[in-house]
Each structure stands twice: as structure tokens, then as C-alpha cells.
Amino acid sequence: MEAMVASKTATHVTPLAVSRALRVLGTHLSDWRKLQRLTTAQVAERAGISRDTLRSIEQGRGTASTENLVRVLRVLGILDSAVTATDPYQTDVGRLRADEILPRRVRG
Q1: pLDDT tens across 33-67, in order?
Q2: Which of 10, 29, 45, 48 is least surrounded by Cβ atoms within 10 Å, i.e. has the fewest?
Q3: Domains of the chain by residue range
Q4: CA dihedral 68, 75, 24, 65 (to 10 degrees)
Q5: For all residues of the chain together, what is the average pLDDT?
Q6: For the domain bounded by 17-87, which CATH number is listed?
Q7: Cβ–Cβ under 8 Å, residues 64 and 56
Q8: Region of poorest pLDDT, from 6-20, 39-53, 84-98
Q9: Is the four-CA dihedral 79, 43, 32, 54 of positive or negative sign?
Q10: Cα 5 from chain centroid?
């Protein structure tokens, strides 16, 4: 019973690299918004999210859903660039292994 209670109250620790990336990403999105002379209210409304959610994304809190992040990327006009940046076939490793058949599931 104690083990069960302990697992429910275990703290979630965000790795330092992830925290740093969230902050940098948030800063970049904020900069994009400002360069386009858009207010937080305008971006939030166009993305269909609250200003608090946008603020959370821009401050790198890591509490927003992936969909909300993608909505903001779309409003700022950088969605395609972000998706392309994650394309494994745009990397040397991906191009080298392009002929390999990707497994449906990777088991550890």
C-alpha cells in the first residue's frame, strides 16, 4: 500500500536539456510574434487558445498540449519549417538509411 501511495506522489522532474529547449523555443516563438507585430491576444485568438496558454508556451513552461503548440506555429507561419526540421530524411543518417524498411515498432 505504501509503495502505491509513493508512486502516486512521485515528482515529475523535467530533464535540464528539455527545460532549456522549452525556454529557447518559447523565446523564439515570442520573437516571431513580435517581429510580425502581433499581440498575444491576436495570436491566441487566431490559434483558438487562451492568452494564458500562449504565455505558457512563450515562457517555456511545458504545460501546453502539442496541438496548441502546433496551432501557434501555424499562426506564426512557421509550421511547415518546424515539421520539415523533424523529418529524419533531411538528415545524413536518414538519407543513408532511406532504403531500409522502417519497423512498425521498435522494441527495447
Answers
A1: 999 999 999 999 999 999 999 999 999 999 999 99
A2: 10
A3: 17-87
A4: 0
A5: 90
A6: 1.10.260.40
A7: yes
A8: 6-20
A9: negative
A10: 31
